[in-house]
Design a protein that fits this description.
The structure holds two protein chains of two kinds. By secondary structure, chain A is mostly helical. In chain A, about 75% of the residues lie in helices and about 0% in strands. Chain A has a single domain, classed as MetI-like fold, CATH 1.10.3720. The two termini of chain A are about 55 Å apart. By secondary structure, chain B is α/β, with parallel strands linked by helices. Chain B has a single domain, classed as Rossmann fold, CATH 3.40.50.300. Classes of the chains: A mainly alpha, B alpha/beta.
Chain lengths: ~300, ~300
């Protein structure tokens, strides 16, 4: 033994623990490139924000939020768009939650693993990638004409529901899948039925992630213009806007922005449109923050 | 210890491979048995029987996952209010076999079970047997502590709630925690999340949770493998305590544990069956009193495994 040890090549390191020169340089260089890539995104975002805030902040006032639109830029407001967007949000949430979570629960917890289920899953995943304007056309032909809902609030809400449903289903399934198998086993071992386990253990454990996914998809829906434009939101609605009247015509903030930009006067194109964009972005910021808060609180409770 | 030695001194005359502790029965359970949903919750397990009554009689039980056999032709009896340990190298089908006793294999789509398991003369796999009801009366504790991500209190009331047991929840919580030797440690923080407990406490909570639905049998699948030696000792003490009222089957890879806590030990192995087929099937090698298995086993393979000479 002693002989073998002494014959082993001496592994004394000459250069101590210094890294080979090439490695350090390559490492630094790669990091720099990655940092610059981040900067590009950041610079674009900041420029955009600064530009919009500079143009629009002058047009912001309480009146801007509470007044209907007008032919005169100083009097124009986005009350119709704001109430329309908020009612769309509530309606879409009310319809998406049960449908999306129900479908996700079925697919994740109960569906037999067969060809039919796989086909269904593949379809849902593909639907999540369909361009939003296609949903607009679907809404136009099905809700406006075929079902005769006309160009009304409910048509817009249904169209947006169809748009976000696949995303919500996919996100909810992932949330359910993240609930450890052991929790289900524990419930079943107590003599609970699979349905009881799904509704009382698995779903509650997944609800924070489901909500996060819901809010993020809602904020996508709220910013959408094309589908509801095609499915009949009106561009400039002046008065009598009752946000809860499902069969009434409606508008939404993105639609109003689109309308403002199309007008000939420069005040509308720049100041009023930018002010409306600020409102929309603030709304989205709030929704995304809510999603992050829910996620963080959930992470802390674990 | 004393109490166990006394049971070990009972003469063991049964043949080792196949237990025929009770005469072979051919009668099938009658329809509308205690397993059907409607009569379920009311039927309390009969605890008046004497110690050596047979709770489970497994006959020629084989389990396949898809077309691959995991366990072949296992026959043995589990006796009432004893601790039976399943030991053997990993992959020999101990967990698979354990899951047969409360029909959790039913939840694995690819699993297929043949043979018969009688529970108090009733075929567990008969048509009119409700697997959910089986799982209520035959509790299970898992390898990794798996409390629900809820309060300690809610963990313990879930079982009684889903089984619509007409009980005082506070009382159930306290009794089950006391039985699981956890009451003194958690009585002041029942509303706290169960995840705030240590691993050993979580596992005792899971045992308490299993007790809340008043099972007759508790199946434990390597309940200490995620725990430190002190927590393990706690659980072992607890098991010996529970043995007075419950029938326990424990899978363990720790032979000292089997020797310490169990009354009887079943040794399983997985061997290549033939030269032109290298698939391994789990098989029962032998079952007998723990003292006998550890001191004087009938089979060479048991001896090799226990003395650490196993390949
Ligand atoms: N859910 C499953 N699906 C397919 N094969 C399984 C499943 N569970 C266990 N097996 C297989 O069955 C055999 C026995 O496994 P298991 O019962 O877990 O053994 P043990 O508990 O003795 O380690 C192993 O070969 C394992 O791969
Ligand atoms: Mg196992």
């Amino acid at each position: 033994m002693a002989v073998a040890t002494s014959e082993r090549p001496n592994r004394q390191v000459d250069g101590g623990f210094r890294a080979p020169v090439g490695n350090t340089v390559r490492e630094r260089f790669t990091q720099l490139v990655l940092f610059l890539a981040t900067c590009v995104a950041l610079v674009v975002l900041v420029t955009l924000l600064v530009d919009i805030v500079r143009d629009g902040v002058g047009g912001l006032s309480l009146n801007f939020l509470t007044q209907y639109t007008s032919r005169v830029a100083e009097n124009a407001g986005i009350r119709a768009g704001l109430t329309g967007t908020l009612s769309l949000m509530v309606l879409v949430a009310l319809m998406t939650f049960p449908l999306g979570v129900g479908a996700a629960l079925y697919l994740e917890e109960f569906a037999p693993r067969n060809r039919w289920t796989r086909l269904l899953e593949a379809n849902i995943n593909n639907l999540a990638g369909v361009p939003s304007i296609v949903y607009g056309l679907l809404g136009l032909s099905v809700f406006v004409f075929f079902l005769g809902f006309g160009r009304s609030l409910i048509t817009g809400a249904l169209t947006l529901t169809l748009l976000v449903l696949p995303v919500v289903i996919v996100a909810s399934r992932e949330a359910l899948r993240a609930v450890p198998r052991e929790i289900r086993d524990g419930g079943l071992a107590l003599g609970a039925t699979p349905l009881q386990v799904a509704l009382r253990q698995t779903l509650p454990a997944a609800i924070p992630s489901i909500l996060t996914g819901m809010i993020l998809s809602l904020s996508r829906a709220v910013g959408e213009t094309a589908p509801i434009l095609v499915a009949g939101a009106v561009g400039s609605r002046r008065a009598d806007n009752e946000p809860w009247n499902l069969s009434e015509a409606y508008t939404a903030i993105p639609i109003q922005i689109f309308d403002f930009v199309k007008r000939p006067q420069e005040e509308f194109q720049i100041q009023v449109a930018s002010a409306a964009i600020i409102v929309l972005m603030t709304l989205l910021l709030f929704m995304n923050s809510a999603a992050i808060i829910i996620r963080n609180r959930y992470a802390r409770n674990r | 210890m004393d109490q166990r030695t006394s049971t070990q001194s009972q003469p063991t005359t049964q043949p080792i491979r196949l237990e025929t502790g009770t005469a072979a029965r051919t009668e099938q359970p009658t329809a509308g048995s205690a397993w059907s949903k409607d009569t379920g919750a009311g039927a309390a397990p009969d605890r008046s029987a004497t110690r050596h009554d047979v709770v489970f009689q497994a006959r020629d039980v084989s389990v396949h996952y898809g077309s691959a056999p995991a366990l072949v032709n296992v026959s043995l009896a589990i006796r009432q209010r004893e601790i039976t340990a399943f030991i053997g190298p990993s992959g020999c089908g101990k967990s698979t076999f354990l899951r047969c006793f409360n029909r959790t294999n039913d939840l694995i789509p690819s699993a297929r079970i043949t043979g018969q398991i009688d529970y108090h003369h009733q075929n567990l796999y008969a048509k009119d047997v409700d697997a959910v009801e089986v799982r209520r009366r035959i509790g299970m504790v898992f390898q990794k502590p798996n409390p629900f991500p809820k309060s300690i209190y809610d963990n313990l009331t879930f079982g009684p709630k889903v089984n619509r047991m007409k009980v005082d929840f506070d009382e159930v919580v306290e009794t089950s925690l006391r039985r699981a030797a956890l009451w003194d440690e958690v009585k002041g923080k029942l509303k706290q999340n169960a995840y705030s407990l240590s691993g050993g406490q979580q596992q005792r909570l899971c045992i308490a949770r299993a007790l809340t639905v008043d099972p007759e049998v508790i199946l434990m699948d390597e309940p200490c493998s995620a725990l430190d030696p002190i927590a393990t000792a706690h659980i072992e003490d607890l098991m010996r305590e529970l043995e007075h009222d419950y029938t326990i089957i424990i899978v363990t890879h720790n032979m000292q544990q089997a020797a310490r806590v169990s009354d009887r030990t079943a040794f399983f192995t997985a061997e290549v069956e033939s030269e032109n087929d290298d698939r391994r099937f789990g098989r029962l090698v032998e079952i007998g009193d723990t003292s006998m298995i550890f001191s004087n086993p009938n089979d060479r393979r048991t001896e090799d495994y226990i003395s650490g000479r196993f390949g």
